[in-house]
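Appendix B, example 12.
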Amino acid sequence: MAAAAAVASMALAVAAAQQQPTFRSRTSVVIVDVLVRDGSRPVRGLEKADFQIFDEGFPQQIDELLPEQMPIDLTILLDASGSTARAIESFKSSAAKVSGMLRPEDRLRVMAFATGPVELSPLTADPGPRIFAAPLPVGATSLNDALVLALARARHPGRRHLVVAYTDGADTSSVLETVMVARVARRSDAVLHLVLDAHETRPPADDLRLLREAAESTGGGVSEISTDAAVTLRQVFDDFRESYVLRFTPSDLSSTGWRSLAVRLTRPDADRYTVRARKGYSAGGGS
């Protein structure tokens, strides 16, 4: 029943996507998650003056560097299809360890997918240890449908949203094409990170490219695991928690649609650091 409801929801998402909606009726404030690394280590202690944001190539005034300890909404998306059967229990154990890193003010949602996506636990601050013991769906792999469903949730005011999906990346049964994941990711307020199991089936090169583009457009990325998934998951979550959160008000919203963003450091030693941030946002209509 849950899978049927999810498929019905996805059909609505297809119809809506064909009309090119946005998650904002009009963008007046933009929130950008920014991860700064010195090698493999997150850089702490930066201030608002250390950053510069460019909207469509034009420098913007940063209104605020938001508190690092903003509450987090974490969505964990598990690929329970047959192709990941050998590794899913290990990943569930790893995900449970990451959920234990959440603070009292953070919230967790757990979804799983096979032929259809299922919500194992709604967004809650205290899911309890049994959340990952729930029965998983079975069948083929509807990765695209599940990703769109996970991403199509507006950011709650004063909170950040991270979606971590564990999968082999090979979609076999989705209603939606992979290109739709990339389009929805560009409009989503969430940061998407894909954890690909290197031992399992590889997706087609074009699909992998689109999935990588989708994740990177949100300020996230793609990690491949070949040993302990817990290490990878912990790194993804730590990176997100250590990210800076910048807020700015666009100086010009005369044009709508997708608007490119670039974040740079103003420090004299900026070249030694790696900056990862959202690549754009959707202002009004357009894709």
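The two ends are 33 Å apart (CA to CA). The chain has six helices and 15 strands.
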